[in-house]
User: Fold these one by one.
Assistant:
Number 1:
Amino acid sequence: MSFAATPIFLLMAYLTYFQLPPLCAVPGSFGFLSTMWLMYAIMGVVHSGPWFLLAWSLLKRTRSKQRQLRQGTCPEPSES
């Protein structure tokens, strides 16, 4: 479930940014800060922790496998 938040928030940011009539704009002199797309983009970044952890663990696994292959401690996969 934690992996679902980031793509949903980024999709919502994309859709609200390219929405023709801005339905969720706050009147005032805040400029682009008064729109909802910025809030959705920030929420997407805040909730992206599980994606970074997944990418980091995959990167570590790949690097350790490459190191084992260089040192000769890991048998190479045989073709069937």
Number 2:
Amino acid sequence: MAQGSIVKRGEVYYIVYRFGGKQRWERVGLSRRDAEVVLVERVNLINKGDYREAKRISLADCTQPTTGRYESFVSKMLAKRPKSCQFKTSTQKCKSPKLVKSQGLTRW
């Protein structure tokens, strides 16, 4: 049966419990009541066998799925641009955009 305790360091309360043969410290907040509630939740989850510890992952692993979606989004947006906005290669002549003033706003 799992047990735990509440520790105050400075102004912050921590809960301390054992999981997987190791002692775990978890920062809870400024209220002892909040620490008591979180500690009861953790101990109950450990006793039921439903507790899973958060795994550490690198930033690259975390952003990799997002990067693929971003690249596909950018390629779709580039395909939808009007012809006047297409990039020119260095061998082609490129016309510089002219500024148009309408209603006091300057836009391309």
Number 3:
Amino acid sequence: MRFFIAAVLLLPMTTASVLGQEPRNESAKAQVCKNTGKFESSCNPFSKAAVAHAVDNTCAITGDATTDGDKAQDRLKNNLCANGSARAITMKELTALQNSVDATGVNYGNEHEGKGGGPPADRSTLFTKLPAGSAKEGDLVSFVGYIVEVQPGSSETVDCHCTETDAIDVHIAVADHLLDLQTAPANATKEQKHEITVKNDAQLCTNSLVVETIPHKRPAALEQQAIEPLRDKKIVKITGPLLFDASHKPCHGTTPGTGDPARVTVFEIHPVYDIAVCSQSAMTQCTADSNNWKSVLQK
């Protein structure tokens, strides 16, 4: 694991969208962030596991975004209505999708770091070169692999720049095989910490993608502290809609850009609807269509 002090967060997931079910209530502190109104969604993929959070009443579906591009992307980041049968997707396919977006020449990426144009208002311009028959943004997909890193998200437009743990995303790095990420010892020097970060980033840049649980209706089983015990131990299946995070860019070789996560693609599963755990320990027994899965949302 990379060296960071993890804040306590949790995550929930499920494969199908269930309409009209309201989450149970949970007392929560008032959020210190911009109030843009109630989060409105007729869908609840978490069924009875859903939990109401204070941010559901104060942060609308487009967060506090001000540009058309951010509004369009934040709406997708909060999409709880993808349905149908999930399509299994691999790291190889995700890398090919990333290459097809880059081939368009569209200027996307972190505009705050002076390296990109941010999310475009017309997102269709990103996908003009997708391979025929490939998965598309918004499709319900599943990825099978290992959770290799779990950490709280940051203050973002999608979460109305809230900072409390029950009002922000949980960021999860997943890979199709186990990685050897290291944690810096408490007495590590600045140079030693940097060396460990560089080595960890090199692995994440070539072997991982990010999936995220969102705070809205998030079940306890999808909070950070509930997901953490699965890290590096269990084969999991992550299910949710496919999203292209045009606020960032993938790594350049083994190095992430300033302000960008270390990952091979900026295609994500976001929001995560479900995390299922395989009862077996071999990947060959944990194919996406096997019967060896149990959702963390099931008691």
